[in-house]
Each structure stands twice: as structure tokens, then as C-alpha cells.
């Protein structure tokens, strides 16, 4: 009898081929996992370094902002203080000394008229207009007589009282009669009435 030849199994049906394939597949799978693991660790490291860089860079960016805000605050506050100082300076009142009135130049004739008017007042009572007329009678001009009477200190109401008393010492008068006599001598109605009231008429 002729011997039967054993039919060879196809290579993919052999056990060692499958074992080899499993090893290769597992090796590829493990390599892919390592690659993904290394990639993930690399991305994580990048993220950590980026966050660290951001943290280190953040204060550098914020520091100038704080300095800028401080500078802006000081710039805004500086002009506000200057007007206050100006206002304080403007509020101070400037005190001007009152100018002294210029003293009129007095001529010799005017000095003599003043001296003569004072002598008359020491002797008897006069009204303003009556004393001017008396000085004019003594030869002084109207300007000199008026200047002299205007530049002496006289209480004309007191002069009216003295003149009324002189009249009462000489003779008797009624109230209205003495008022008329005093107004005739140049006293005003107010001065004459004051004299009569003071004398008790």
C-alpha cells in the first residue's frame, strides 16, 4: 500500500503563528499606550510650566498697574490742593491804609483871619455868618473870612445859647422874640430854638 502524505496545515492555522501574532499585537498596544502616556505627561508638564510661567509673570504685569494707579492718584490729588492754597491767599483781605487828606496851604492873611476869629469868640458869641461879616468888617476878604470860620472848631448851637443868655442879661425877651433876634444875628432856626429851649423859655 502506498503511504498517505499528511496534508500541511495552512500557516495561519498553526499555533505558533497565533502566539507570535498575539505577542506582536500586545507589543504594539503597549507601545501605543506608552506613547499616549508620554504624550499625556508631556502635555501635563507643558500645562504646569505654562501655569507656573503665568504665575511668575502675573506679578510683573500687575506691579506697574499699581504704580500707575498710585501715580494717577497723586496726579489727580496734586491739582486739587493748589486751588485751596490760591483760595486761602485770595481770602486774605488787603488792608489799604487810608490816605491822609492833603493839608491846604495857609497864607499869612488866612492865619491872621483865623487868629482874629478866635479872639472874637473869646470875647463874645457869634453865629457862623455873623462872624464872617465881622471879619469882613475888619478888612478881610470874603474868601479869607470864610476860610477862617470854616477852619476853626466851633459848636454853633452852644454859641446860640451864649448869645441868647447875653440878650437876656441885657433885657427881657419872649420865646418867639428871642428866636427872632437870634435868627437875625445869623443863627439858624434850629440853633435858635435849641438856645431858647436850653435857656428855659
Q: Helix segment count?
A: 7
Number of DSSP E strands: 0
Quaternary arrangement of the chains shown?
Answer: single chain
Largest sheet: none
Detail the poorly predicted runs.
none
Instruction: Give the overall shape, derived from the CA principal axes.
Output: rod-shaped
Provide the structure class: mainly alpha
Provide the gyration radius in Å. 65 Å
Describe this protein's structure:
The protein is mainly α and 201 residues long. The protein is 74% helix and 0% strand. The N and C termini lie far apart (200 Å). The model has no long low-confidence stretch (mean pLDDT 74).
Secondary-structure map:
Layout: H1 15-91, H2 108-123, H3 128-137, H4 142-150, H5 156-170, H6 175-184, H7 189-199
Helix pairs in contact: 2-4, 3-4, 5-7, 6-7
In short:
The chain is mainly alpha-helical and 201 residues long.
Descriptors:
201 residues; mainly alpha; 7 helices
Amino acid at each position: 500500500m502506498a503511504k498517505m502524505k499528511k496534508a500541511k496545515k495552512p500557516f495561519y492555522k498553526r499555533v505558533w503563528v497565533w502566539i507570535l501574532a498575539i505577542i506582536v499585537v500586545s507589543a504594539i498596544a503597549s507601545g501605543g499606550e506608552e506613547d499616549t502616556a508620554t504624550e499625556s505627561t508631556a502635555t501635563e508638564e507643558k500645562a504646569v510650566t505654562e501655569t507656573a510661567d503665568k504665575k511668575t509673570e502675573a506679578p510683573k504685569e500687575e506691579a506697574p498697574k499699581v504704580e500707575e494707579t498710585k501715580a494717577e492718584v497723586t496726579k489727580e490729588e496734586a491739582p486739587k490742593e493748589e486751588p485751596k492754597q490760591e483760595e486761602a491767599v485770595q481770602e486774605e483781605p488787603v488792608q489799604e491804609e487810608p490816605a491822609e487828606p492833603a493839608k491846604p496851604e495857609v497864607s499869612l492873611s488866612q492865619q491872621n483871619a483865623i487868629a482874629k476869629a478866635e479872639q472874637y469868640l473869646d470875647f463874645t458869641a457869634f453865629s457862623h455868618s455873623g462872624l464872617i461879616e465881622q471879619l469882613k468888617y475888619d478888612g478881610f476878604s470874603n474868601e479869607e473870612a470864610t476860610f477862617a470860620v470854616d477852619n476853626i472848631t466851633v459848636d454853633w448851637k452852644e454859641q446860640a445859647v451864649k448869645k441868647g443868655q447875653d440878650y437876656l442879661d441885657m433885657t427881657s425877651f419872649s420865646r418867639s422874640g428871642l428866636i427872632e433876634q437870634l435868627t437875625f444875628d445869623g443863627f439858624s432856626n434850629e440853633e435858635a430854638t435849641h438856645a431858647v429851649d436850653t435857656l428855659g423859655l
